[in-house]
Amino acid sequence: MPRILHLGVGNFFRAHQAWYTQRCPEWNITGVSFRSSSVRDHLVTQDYSYKLVIKDTLETKIETITCLDSILVMVENPEAVISAITDPLFNVITLTVTEKAYCLGPDGKLNQNDPAIREDLNGGKLTLIGTLARGLAKRKKPITILSCDNLPENGQKLRSAVKTFTELANLEIKANITYPSCMVDRITPATTDKIRLEAHDHMAVPTEEFTEWVVENDFASARPDWPNVQWVDDVLPHEMRKLRMLNGAHSYLAYAGIIRGYTFVHEAIADPILRAGAFKIMAEAAQTLPKDIQNQTKDYSAALIKRFENPNLLHRLRQIAMDGSEKLPIRIVSTITHRDKQDSPALNAAITAWISFVQKEVTEGHLLDDPRASQIAEACLSDDPDTELRNLIGAC
């Protein structure tokens, strides 16, 4: 039976990639948890199966996912993870590890001065990129590495990062490896006690009915016959549409919504001012997209607003607000850059909302959930916090 190795076993993977693979009975998944054994320890007691709680505006459906049948824990046994990468039983490696795990610089290439990368190269704790490089250097059979994170041209960025690390570590990769890009979309909140009780499952995952997956058709060997996946030659237009319109509006709603006292996305989008702001961000973003995609953006915007309005999903704004210094350059700043010096009041309002949010958090003594938390706090306490914070995300 062919297998997928999936790196990062959080809620999104269990609501998206695992949901698609559940519909391919000939494929199973081994997961890898990088930071903790918690997910493995809970799932192993129920044979790794769990409930997916699908929340539409009118109804709730509960599905059982069983295609995940084992989990490796990186901090316990990194060599087992490297061995899995070399194992010919695995035809595909998929990843949902968030943007920060790629250790990229502002230019989208591996940041060779990243402390985690330096530690890895010096024999310390392994990074995602270092783990892949070491495993692939030992591999003989072809394999496909499919990044499913919210990065434009995620496949190309991952390929470049692995190649650079391989050179720095004096490794050599001989196997035929492809790195297709893809775009993933399914709003997946954090699990609450209410969801656990509703599903009678401590490891239940809430999500919405809508799901989308656009994948570059560039696989090195066998690929799963995932249903309703769009196989394309160029994913970039789809990535741009999603990152700039959905994720951009989401970030704006998160920061502006928290400032205005809201907790959930559906509350923020019900505010006429924030609703108008979200629409304007989508409109400004739409103007940066290829012409054939622009023709779809009016309907796409309306569909996004409807998804945001779902009162049953209970998507917390603070979940979206995490890692803002990593997300805003991709979701907002890049869009402004691609507007070729046109005025971008709505997009700039999103940056202003983030600045107000982090300043309020720092002033009130809250710990920021951001990889650059210390730099943000330092900027907030500087003589010119607005300029310093804009410089931090490349919005100067």
Structure description:
- By secondary structure, this protein is an alpha/beta fold.
- The protein folds into 2 domains: 3-234, NAD(P)-binding Rossmann-like Domain (Rossmann fold, 3-Layer(aba) Sandwich), CATH 3.40.50; 237-392, N-(1-d-carboxylethyl)-l-norvaline Dehydrogenase, domain 2.
- Helices cover 46% and strands 15% of the residues.
- It has 18 helices and 12 strands.
- It has helices spanning 11-15, 17-22, 38-43, 78-86, 115-121, 128-138, 154-168, 193-199, 236-259, 265-270, 272-286, 291-294, 297-308, 317-321, 324-337, 345-363, 373-380, 385-392; strands spanning 3-7, 28-33, 50-55, 60-65, 68-73, 90-95, 143-147, 177-178, 182-185, 205-208, 212-216, 230-232.
- The strands form 3 sheets. The protein has a 6-stranded parallel sheet. It has a 3-stranded mixed sheet with strand order 4-3-10.
- Helix 9 (236-259) packs antiparallel against helix 11 (272-286).
- The protein is globular.
- The termini are far apart.
- The mean pLDDT is 97.
